[in-house]
Amino acid sequence: MGWFSRDVLVTFIDDATGAAFATTKMLPDDLPESFEIETTLHLGEADWSVVHAEPRTRGEYTKSGALTLRLLKIEKIGAEAISFSQLDITERFDDNQGLGKDEWISTMPLSLTIADPKSAGLPSPDADSDEVYRVASKLSALRESIPIPDDGVYCPICHIANVDLGRLRTPCPKCGRELLKFGWT
Ligand SMILES: [Zn+2]
């Protein structure tokens, strides 16, 4: 065994607090060859992004026998945040059952039902109609790219929905804006 297989004492520092939260001995070969490119580590239950490594290359930390990593915890995006592809919901999941193609049902904005709409990618409750529609249209485009059974249409401004997907991107009967894709569940 040469000097190159010596353990490296790795110190993990939480960049958010500046505090060292763990130290461990690792073989140089088990560590990335270089931290010059973006590196993500999985420690415990969380993923951490390496914001700074000292030193930065295997050659250097093998020689010094010590490596200090400043890490930033990667916050998982909540499941609800990524599942939003529309701004409104109906009161019950099966509200589309029994609705005729010419019937409209009123919807309510999701932004009123969740604590921090902005962090979920939704417009804030006081956003104006243009902003609300802009976000809704973007989300709808995403939903339009995926075939989802039983999707209908809605207007995120007038808060009405209809089961007929054939009306997608046709004018809303109330305000004339294009109707967007709407999921009932
Ligand atoms: Zn409308």
Question: How would you characterize the overall build of this protein?
Answer:
The protein has helices spanning 58-64, 79-83, 129-144, and strands spanning 8-14, 19-26, 40-43, 46-54, 66-73, 88-89, 105-106, 108-109, 152-155, 160-162, 180-182. The protein has two domains: 3-73, Ubiquitin-like (UB roll), CATH 3.10.20; 79-182, no CATH class. It has a five-stranded mixed sheet. A four-stranded antiparallel sheet has the order 7-10-9-11. The protein contains three helices and eleven strands, in the order ββββαβαβββαβββ. Helices cover 15% and strands 28% of the residues. The chain binds zinc ion (ZN). Zinc ion is lined by residues 155, 157-158, 172, 174-175, 177.
For the sheet with most strands, the description reads: 5 strands, mixed
Query: How large is the radius of gyration?
Result: 25 Å
The coarse overall form would be elongated
Which small-molecule ligands are present, each listed once? zinc ion
* Overall helicity: 10-25%
* Extended strand count: 11
Number of helices, counting only DSSP H or I runs of 4 residues or more: 3
User: What does the average pLDDT come to?
Assistant: 86
The percent range for strand residues is: 25-35%
Structural class: alpha+beta
**What count of structural domains?**
2
Main sheet: which strands, in order across? Answer: 2-1-5-4-3
Distance between the termini: 61 Å
List the helices and strands and how they pair.
Elements: E1 8-14, E2 19-26, E3 40-43, E4 46-54, H1 58-64, E5 66-73, H2 79-83, E6 88-89, E7 105-106, E8 108-109, H3 129-144, E9 152-155, E10 160-162, E11 180-182
Parallel strand pairs: 1-5
Antiparallel strand pairs: 1-2, 3-4, 4-5, 6-8, 7-10, 9-10, 9-11
Bound molecules: zinc ion (ZN).
The site of zinc ion has 7 residues, from loops.
